[in-house]
Design brief:
9 helices; Rossmann fold; binds adenosine monophosphate
């Protein structure tokens, strides 16, 4: 499948993407994960991106488009891809449209994950992430805790609260989402690509997406 996942921070994009990848072998491309790995590795890209990310601001479009132009041409994308956290602005969406045309790639669907602000705030303030950039397993202190001493159950690395998941940063990220990213819903609606899915129960959401994809084949 070739799909875009839209939704506010905490809407469940990462979780849904993982289920969909397990289903048909498509790969998840998360610009957030790529940027966090770059920050951790201390690369030029990471140094440029860190300040924006810590504040909850978006990284400049030009940096993101450079990453994605290269990433979409890697051989593993031939199996299909799920874009998680990209595009985030109308400019990125317009440039992605041109890029896909140039690469002769057709998208199947744009999925918009809908969830209330209260649920988002609760999910994000209780979320924890494995600090190992190769793993990045997501935990939740209420519903999916790590080990008793705060370690990842998959790889044993410490599980941490991300710098951009403090309450202050989350409120700012939601504001950024409403101003810069929410307009993409209208953009893809106009393109005739958009479908909305409630994102309260991930299994039900995944089943709904699979059904919708099937009806397009
Ligand atoms: P995420 O894990 O997708 O919430 O991304 C974490 C942070 O990385 C965001 O708050 C932004 O600072 C940055 N980021 C991720 N994807 C993008 C993007 N497509 N455009 C601009 N900034 C991004």
């Amino acid at each position: 499948m070739r799909i875009i996942l839209l939704g506010a921070p905490g809407a469940g994009k990462g979780t849904i993407a993982k289920f969909l990848c397990d289903f048909d072998g498509s790969i998840q491309i998360s610009t957030g994960d790529i940027l966090r790995a770059a920050v951790k590795a201390g690369t030029e890209l990471g140094k440029k991106a860190k300040g924006y990310m810590d504040r909850g601001d978006l990284v400049p479009d030009s940096l993101i488009m450079n990453i994605m132009e290269a990433r979409l041409q890697e051989p593993d994308c031939e199996k299909g891809f799920i874009l998680d956290g990209f595009p985030r602005t109308i400019k990125q969406a317009e440039e992605l449209k041109d890029l896909l045309k140039k690469l002769d790639i057709k998208l199947d669907l744009v999925v918009n994950l809908e969830v209330s602000r209260d649920v988002i705030l609760d999910r994000l303030t209780t979320r924890r992430t494995c600090s190992n950039s190769e793993c990045q397993e997501i935990y939740n202190i209420k519903s999916k805790p790590p080990t008793a001493d705060g370690k990842c159950k998959k790889c044993g690395s410490p599980v941490i609260q991300r710098d951009d998941e403090t309450e202050e940063a989350i409120v700012y990220r939601l504001k950024t989402y409403n101003e810069k990213t929410a307009p993409l819903i209208g953009f893809y609606e106009t393109e005739g690509m958009l479908e909305n899915f409630a994102s309260t129960n991930s299994q039900e959401t995944v089943e709904g997406i699979k059904k919708s994809l099937k009806s397009k084949v």
